[in-house]
Design brief:
With 171 residues, the chain is an alpha/beta fold. Strands 2-3-1-4-5 form a five-stranded parallel beta sheet, with helices on both faces. Helix 5 packs across helix 7. It has a single domain, classed as Rossmann fold (3-Layer(aba) Sandwich). The chain is globular, with a radius of gyration of 16 Å. The protein has seven helices and five strands; from the N terminus they run E-H-E-H-H-E-H-E-H-H-H-E.
């Protein structure tokens, strides 16, 4: 599959820090399809998540649309999103680069008022309540675990079930 011959229902998955949001914004600008960042849907103010059933319902509503770009992992719905997508873009970014980008984003959030935080937290001016350094460390650990334990399984399942829909981007 070719990035210029992309469908109208696109999902982008990959490790935290892999470039999902960067790519989703570029595709949104090029194709004008509605863009949905799963972090913006999942998180309310003060880093409180919405209930799982509400999150799933919102995803199902998006999947009914004729056009979309969905940026994010959230494993509970990844295979459902893959079924409904025309194109599955998998970001294959090296772990060291993902970790670097997360640290860079953390520093930018502290310096630039939460520039890279989920929308509801940013708009509510909650960037000062941004996750602590301990939480940043835990997020880095999660990113390592995702790359070591989960990414390969997710990729193998998606490739075996949806190989004709997949574009892998190595950065």
């Amino acid at each position: 599959m070719d990035i210029n011959n992309i469908g109208k229902r696109i999902i982008i998955i990959g490790s935290p820090g892999s470039g999902k949001t960067f790519l989703s914004k570029k595709l949104n600008k090029k194709f004008k399809y509605p863009l949905y960042h799963l972090d913006d849907i999942y998180w309310k103010e003060d880093w409180v998540s919405i209930p799982d059933n509400v999150f799933q319902s919102k995803i199902l509503d998006i999947l009914k649309k004729d056009e979309f770009i969905i940026d994010g992992n959230y494993g509970d719905s990844i295979y459902l999103r893959a079924e409904k997508a025309d194109t599955i873009i998998i970001m294959k970014t090296p772990l060291y680069l993902c970790l670097f980008r997360i640290l860079k984003r953390t520093i930018q959030n502290k310096l630039y008022n939460g520039k890279h935080l989920p929308k509801k937290i940013r708009i509510a001016n909650k960037f000062k309540k941004q996750k602590s350094n301990e939480n940043t460390f835990l997020f880095l650990i999660y990113t390592i675990k995702y790359n070591v334990f989960y990414k390969g399984k997710i990729l193998a399942n998606l490739v075996s079930d949806h190989s004709e829909k997949i574009i892998q981007i190595k950065r």
